Amino acid sequence: MLIDINKIINWKDLISIALIQFFVKCFFLRGFGFETSLTCGNFFLLVLSTLLIVLGSFFITFYFIKKNSLKVITKKQLFFWYSILSLLGITAGTYISFEIEKPSYSFIFVFLSLSTLFYAMDSTRKTLMNNIIPSFLKSSSIVLVWWIDSPVSLSSAEWEIFLNLELIIIYYIAVSFAGNFIKSIVVDLKNIKVDNYNNQETLPIVFGEEKAKTIILRISLVIILTTTMMMFYFINNIYISIIILLLICIPQIYCFLKLKKAKTKKDYKYLIKGIDFILFLGILSMPLISYYIKHVIL
To answer: 165: domain range?
Structure first.
């Protein structure tokens, strides 16, 4: 099993999910004068719960993809680790829900775990849902923190601050979902010949390569326009506008132009790396925007 562990676990996804959740907590829910629902210990449990559910999903997905060629690790071992990790994740999430006196929130963790299972069961047959579900799960890591670790007893002045922060977070959630969705379609465009040979039903195969490109180009354009609107919303705070322009808007426009010209497998490989870099820059912008709001605006 030790030989195959790096083939099973996507460490990059785990690290990015943990990093995003810590960034949302540290840079948008702390230092603004209001208290939130979770203590530091309970927040750590929330991150742990998310990571355990995602970690469990790697084992079950690996089984459904490799079930006909398993050698070092068995079906029983993969299901054991999936069950244990998912159960621990749901248990931690349920504990947090009861701690903040919102027991119904425990169903969120059950839903996330079941979503990963349904995705894994359908992972060998590529459809549009294989693009939507992972994109949703990645962006839900932000939603989870914002929803569960919500502020308590806000004054009118704090409400105004919180609403501005919420607008920024909604933007990050939308960009995270759209960015990951676009990336997954670009991967399908790169693999179109192999997927066509294997009778898959990816977006580029069902609608054709050019139409699939047109769809994600339009989504990219919506993201760029939304980013531009965000930039003008904070136009009175030139520092935030510059951060949005340099770290988010310009890279998005660059990738849009590259996507428009992309035709070969090499072009799509380059684009995948470019989208990853844009998502990383988006994460990097969080502490910069937060610092300015905390120490200059307030």
So the answer is: 154-298
Residue whose C-alpha is closest to residue 88's, from 120, 51, 62, 61: 51
Question: CA 292 to CA 10: how far, in whole Å?
Answer: 34
Which residue, among 142, 124, 145, has the nearest Cα to 180 in the 3D structure? Answer: 142
| Confidence category of residue 125, pLDDT binned at 50, 70, 90 | confident
- Alpha helix positions (H), the chain: 5-8, 11-28, 40-66, 75-99, 106-121, 129-148, 156-190, 192-197, 203-207, 209-233, 238-243, 250-261, 265-292
Q: What are 30-70's pLDDT values in tens digits?
A: 888 889 999 999 999 999 999 999 999 999 998 888 877 77
**Residue 181 CA from chain centroid, whole number:** 10
Burial (Cβ within 10 Å: 0-12, 13-18, ≥19) of residue 209:
middle
By the 8 A CB rule, do 28 and 167 touch?
Answer: no
Q: Are residues 220 and 160 in the same domain?
A: yes
The residues pairing with 151 across neighbouring beta strands, listed in sequence order, are 36
Number of structural domains the chain divides into: 2
Tell which residue, 223, 238, 100, 126, has the closest CA to residue 173.
Answer: 223
C-alpha distances (whole Å) from 195 to each of 7, 58, 178, 236, 265 are 21, 22, 23, 49, 13
**Could you tell me if residue 146 is inside a domain?**
no
Mean pLDDT score of the chain = 90
Inter-residue contact 21 to 47 (CB < 8 Å): yes
Q: What would the two tokens of residue 115 be?
A: 């979503």
